[in-house]
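Hi everyone, sorry if this is the wrong subforum. Our group has a chain we'd like a structural model of before ordering constructs, and none of us has done structure prediction before. Sequence below.
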Amino acid sequence: MAAKRPKPPKPPKPPKPPKPKPRLRRSPEDARTLILDAADRVFREHLPDAVGLREIAAAAAVSHGLVTHYFTTYDGLVAAVIARRLDAARTAAFAHLAQMTFAADEAPLLSILIDLLEDRTLVRLLIWSFLTGRSDNITGPPGQFGRLIDSMAARLAAVGTPIPRDRLELAAMVALATVTGWAVLGDTLHRAFGRPAPLDLAVLRTELQRMLRGYALSPMASTVAK
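Answer:
Right subforum, don't worry. Here is the predicted structure as tokens:
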């Protein structure tokens, strides 16, 4: 009698496909914050013109459609990133102003503006907005800087150093224009003047403060047109 042939081994079963990961559910606010945080990281390295929604979506690990769902357009996303940084800067500015004693060696608004230079991402985004005609989206409602001047004028009057509001306003405009220009041209000016090292911001603060304080406290009548 012939021997039985052994049965061939059964082929191994194919591995089961991995179970799909459960979909992470985020609240609308969490999803919006996630996208804003990712866009902020991207804009630290690139101006908005150099990237787009796809790069932001990839950085946030979300779909392109989710970004447009919350921000509609790329410009809307960029404006939201700038607005968030500006809100933080305004909050810090008013907190800084509230803590100041307005002593002779203090220049409140100038100190606030110089501090803004430390936020290079915000400065770059603001300049980009102005140069591309998007400034209306970031300056906010008319008069917000005027309210800051009103607060400063009231504090100065309360400590016995009243300064006419129009003069204080012009000093603020000059300070803002100077600091903005410094943010744009500072590195170029250092090279053009052959400086061995960039000017320290503390020196800029001190010297510009001295110039503006001399103007603001000058006994001459104000010549600012009302």
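For your construct planning: The chain has two domains: 27-72, 86-217. The two ends are 122 Å apart (CA to CA).
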